[in-house]
Structures are given as C-alpha cells and as structure tokens.
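Entry: Neprilysin-2-like
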Amino acid sequence: MNLRRMRAFGKFSPADKLTTIMPCKVLFVLNLFLFLLQCVRADILCQTLGCLKSAEDIKANMDPGVQPCDNFYKFACGNFLKTSVIPPDRASVSTFSKIEDRLSSQIKTVLEEPQSASGPHIFNLMKKFYATCMDEDTLDKLGVQPMKVIIEQLGGLPVVDGDRWDSSRFSWINTTYKLRDLGFNHNLLINIGAGPDFKNSTRRRLLIDQVDLKPLEDFLREGWRNKNVRAYHSYMVKTAVLFGAPVSRAFRELKDSIDFEITMTKFIVPDQELRNLSYLYNLMSVHTLNKYYPSIPWLEFLNRIIGPKISIDSEELVMVTQPKYMSSIERLVQITPKRILANYMLMQTVLSSSAYLCKSARRPYHDFKYVLTGVNSTRIRSQRCVDEVAEKFSLAVGSLYVRHFFDRTSKENALELVNNLRQEMDYILQNVSWMDPQTKKNALEKSKVLKVHIGYPDELLDDDKIDLHYKDLRIVPGDLLTSVLNLYKKSVDYAYTQLHEPINKTSWKEFGSVATVNAFNHIDKNAIEFPAGILQEPYFAADRPCFLNYGAIGTVIGHEITHTFDDEGSQYDKFGNVMNWWDDESKMRYNEKASCIIKQYSNYVIEDIGFRINGITTQGENIADNGGVKESYRAYLECAKQKNAEYKLPGLENFSDKQMFWISFANVWCTKYRKEAMELLFKNDDHPPAEIRVNGPLSNSYDFARDFQCYSGSKMNPKHKCEVW
C-alpha cells in the first residue's frame, strides 16, 4: 500500500559468533573492565578495539581543511567524499552500505553451506532458493520461455501478438484475478490491501487505495520531455522485442501504454497531500462501493482477490483512501481501448519478471538503470541472490543472522540507551512552554506507554515457530520464477487470511525481520524497533566512550522516539489510533513550529543537480532528526557525568568530548552519491540527503554552536533557528 504505517530511520541497505548466553556476559564484563582500565584517567588515550577502530574511521573521513562552522558535514566527511570510490554496481557508497555489505557477506557464508538436518527446515529451503537463483546456466537455457507460457495463460500480449490478439477475450478485471492467482502484482489499476483501521488499530480493514507508480511517478508527471520517461519507453520496447514484437509496433503501442500511465498520474494524489490521515479515512460498505463505482462487481472482485480461504459480504466496511481517484480511474478504464489496457497490464507483469529470467531478459533493465542512476555494472550474482533471499525470507534470515552472528548482550546494553533517551524526551515534553496542560498530559501518557523492541524476538530461536510460518512453501529447484511467485502468493495469502483476526501489536512476526541496518517507528502500534542489524559498529559497541555511542546509535534512537510526535505521529493517540488529542491552540503552535522546519528545508538545494528539497514531504524525518540529536546530546551529558572522566581517541586529542559527540553523529552519515542517481533517490525518499541530515539539525542547535564556538550568523549558527521539540 502507499500508506506507510512505519517510519524508518533511513535507507542503509556484529560481533563475533557466540554460541551461549554465559560466554556473552563474560565477554561483555571483560570488555567493560578493559575499557575502564584503558580509559581510567583523563590524560590517557582509549585503546580498546572499539576506540581504535572508531578513531581510524573518523580520521580517515575528516577534512581538517574545512571550517566546522562553515559546513560541518564536509568537515566530518570531506575526505570520505574525496577518496571513496562508488562501486560500479551502486548508486552510492556510505557508512550504511558498508555495514550492509558486511551483513550480506555473513548471510552468504551460511547460505553456501551444505544443507543440514539440524535447525529449522526453512534454512534448507532458503539454501535451495539461493542455489536456484545462482544457477544462471539453467536460466539462460530456459530463456524467456517460462514467461511466454504465463503470457499465454493471461490471454496474450497485444504488442507481440499483433492482429492475432483477440480483444473480446480481454477483461481488466479477469486479468487482475489471474495475476492474483499466479502470484504477480495484481494492484495495477486499483491498490487492494489489508491493514489496521486508522481509528481502531486493534482490527484490520480492507484498504482500497490509488496505485503506486514509483519510482517513476514524478517523472511521468512531466511527460515525454523527461529523459527518464523516454528511457522507460526504450526499456519497454527492447523487452517487448525480446518476446517477439516487431520494433515499429512496439515503439508505437508502448508509447500508448506510457501515455496511459501519464494520464493516471493526473489522478494520483502526490505524497505531500497525503499527510493528513483523517482525510484518508473513508469507510464504505461493499454495497456503497457498488453505488459509487458501479462498473466493478465489488463483492465478487474483492472476494476473488482476498480468497479463497476468506470471504466478505456486502455489509463489510472497507477503507477507501482516495474516492476521487477511484472515480477517475473507473472512467479512464471505461474509455481506454482494451489493447492499451492489456499492453499496460501485461508489460508491467513482464517487466517485473525479467529479474528472474535469462541474462538477455535482464539487459534492457540494466540499460534503463544506467540512464536513471549512472550505474553501468550489474551486481555480482551472489550479492543479488543474497538480497533476494533476505527480502523474501525476512523472518527466516533474521533467525539465521541472530543465531550465527549477533552478540546478544547488545540487547540489554542498547536498552539502557533507549531508556535514557526516553527520559530526555519526557523532560522535553514536560518543559515545552507552548503546550496547554491537558495536551501535555496526553503527550506524556503516550510517551509512557511507547513500546520498545530491541535486537530480536525470542521466537526467532524457536525452530518450530519459524517452520510453521513457512509451512507448505514450495521452492522448485531450477525454476526461479515459479519459486518467486510461490513466495509472493504465500505472503499475500497470509496477509488476507488475517483480515478478520484481532491484531496482536507485539507479535514476533511484526518485529522479526531483524537482519537489516535500519530502525523503525510503528506509529499504529506506538512502538519503536531497533533490529539486530543496526546494533553494531560504527553505531554501537560496549567498549567505547559515551560520546561515540550517543553520537551514533543514540541519535538513531532519538530519531525514532521523536517520530512518535512528528507531523504524522502526532495524529495518533497512545493506542495507535488516529485521533485528535490536541487542544486547538497547542496544535496551532505546533503547526507554526513545523512550518519553520518546512521553510528551512525547502530552502536547501542539492547543488550538483539544482534539485530543491521538498520540505513538506520530508518534514516528518526532519522533525525526527532535529529532536533525535537534541535528546541524544542531553542523554550523553548525563552519561558523561556518571563516568566522570574525559576519554580521548588516538589522533583526536585536540577535540573535546562534546565536540566528539557531534563528530560521531556526522561520521555515520558520510555518503557519496552518483550525480545521475540523486534526482531519482530524492524524488522517491522522504529523507533528505546525508549532508542536509547533518547540517540541518546542527544549524538549529545552540549546543553545537557553543561546543564549536561558531559565531552568531555563521553558516552553522544562523540567527534564526527552528525547533519543534
């Protein structure tokens, strides 16, 4: 669905293997003892492994020739930008991507081990899927034939069949049914899904939403003058020709198909207009749907999509997020020739399958990707296949990662940081001057019951529960496409069978995809999550001073806590329901403060491409970034008081501990982008670029300005500052 119920820290695509809990605790105590021993006096250097590695990375990334008060990001990351080489198969390189590569490499080592009789059975199925993905010889022998068979089942592809295609056999509704049955994306004209009721998050509703045309949606709005749209057309033509279409016919008919998509973008409400969730809450019975949109047999349509294990009747209430879109798409489908509809629906299906076919079928996509991102090299096959496994077996991969690579003592250590950051958020809430007493009480109550999920749920270590989740999954050796479709169909089936089940907001399945370098705020659950994958260096290590951990993982924790009260999170109450718990005047003052953030970030321009940041769509992330840094800095000061010592990193002795906090924060954001990829990345991401995620919050911080003695009016200490929390 378009509508996010989860806010992520960012896109970033462990310790030694420990086999029992007791050795982990002994190791942690030993590390802590060595840390205290090696950092016992203010005038000696911290020589722990964590300190030495952090010092090495910070020095390598830093550009001392840049004045911190001019551009702190380039001061902390300038040398990284100068010396880092973006891998030929990537659009960027960053601290995050390096950790992701390490995690991916760890998973790969296990997937390439022989199948085992011990452990969950799903681990062997993952290895079977990985081997099938790696078997390029078989893929090349099969060519595009597996997809040709499916095209015939779908009634043929007009651009390929020409005059042989029979329009009388085509119905977009029946094609939607067939796509659902086969395991393909069936949400090509109307987006159907199941999710929490916005105003009663203990139950699920069917959701009917506008389609998602990302990542090309904004480019399609510009029409044929946009080079990416022309490249998209070329991509489609090359693919159709591969399946047997004449070039001239493919050129002509697929232009009509893209024109159809361009028309759809006129009805699709852009992201910046989707932030008021109350406007999206439109409950209708199936009977009412028939009245408003009569060309669709809604009871049959919805039951065919969600079935066969579950069904609804005409009194079922569904949530229609965009009634105007529904009216527009219904009219558009009625006046559009069947040939154009069929080409659109089947070509989207063909394009989605190309990654699971032969090299020649994948080539047109790589040509298209080069125009979009400047990436002119395909990923190493093993990396691609590990990514496929991680995406499609996320719970099982989380279980594998925790068992083999995660230092389980990190859970309790990270929990201490989370509790400290929560105290600082509560302090900020208690002391804001612009909130009326009742709204402040509501905010504090919401903060008090905020649930925390750290590391991994214990169920990931239960073989039976993991296997039960994947029960009856069929992986077909030598048939990658069928295996992928089986996985997708099983996932969608499971989601729909849960429609009438009460929501368990603490279910391990909701928080089990832990082999990821990210963090989340689940706003409909009033919960924050810090998966195992992010609880590692450079974000966190037990043998490092406070300023390193609070500058890195602390700001991540603060970011997620603050999402609870960003422009979208503030629309949810403590139970995770969309409800107005604000006094009118307090809400007006909040909006004024948020408007300051919007205006500030709307004035940022990505210099390399002249792209202006959208301050509206990024406001939630920007509010979270600003609040997260503030909370973490306050928590760091408390930690420093308790330690009662100043620790220095080798080669960085000239910086105070407070300055090192800010350097640690900036250091984890060091990122180098391909110029060609930047517009695509930031038109489709509600996070601003790394430089702005550093300089934006710090330019609003009086603490930063004081610690680096930036004079008032300097670039990093402007006289006018913005603050929500």
